[in-house]
Amino acid sequence: KIIPQKKFSVASSVRPQPELITEAAKLLLEAKNPLITVGGEISKANGVETAIELSDLLAIPVSQGWSGFADFPNRHPMFLGRHTAFLPFNREADFYLSIGSQMPDPGSYIHGGVPPANAKVVHISLELDQLASFQETDVSVFADVKQGMTDLIEAVKSVATNDRIKTIKEERYGRI
């Protein structure tokens, strides 16, 4: 029996608190070596294109977190592959954004590793039991991940000038 996908979908449009998104945007703009990890909530929210837009906005590398989906195109120039403790960008990151994924867990064989040791950590998820549960965060945002990313993109654009965004993107893109 083939069951329609809509029987397994939950409509969600939980908007993030604006002050939390603004705080996350400021931390992101201050970062020299940011890193994003995406997870299954991205695909469930039809947010892959929004994740690409966020990555492309400031040339932010992206790793794949815990998920049964491909939540970011593996041929995208910013895609690093599966998130692990041994990922070079993980060691150097000063800002870590986990979107729609559980936080990396050193005890997990599925999504192992830890968030970068010296990074400001932001976690956006619609799963309350995942937010600030076993890993400390600087900003935890309860929201639909697509809406959270959309608001984060807009917050970055409202906090930074177009010239600053362009400069950050060009410097990072060549390095990554």
Tell me how many strands there are.
Answer: 6
Structural class: alpha/beta
Q: Classify the oligomer.
A: single chain
- Give the helix tally: 6
**Uncertain runs:** none
Cα-based radius of gyration, to the nearest Å? 15 Å
Residue-averaged pLDDT: 90
State the shape.
globular
Q: Helix content range of the residues, please?
A: 25-40%
- N- to C-terminal separation? 46 Å
Report strand order across the widest sheet.
3-2-1-4-5-6
Beta-strand residue percentage: 15-25%
**SSE topology string:** HEHHEEHEEEHH
Largest sheet: 6 strands, parallel
Secondary structure: elements and pairs:
Elements (H helix, E strand, L loop, with lengths): L17 H13 L3 E5 L1 H5 L3 H11 L3 E3 L14 E4 L5 H5 L2 E5 L20 E6 L13 E4 L2 H15 L2 H14 L1
Parallel strand pairs: 1-2, 1-4, 2-3, 4-5, 5-6
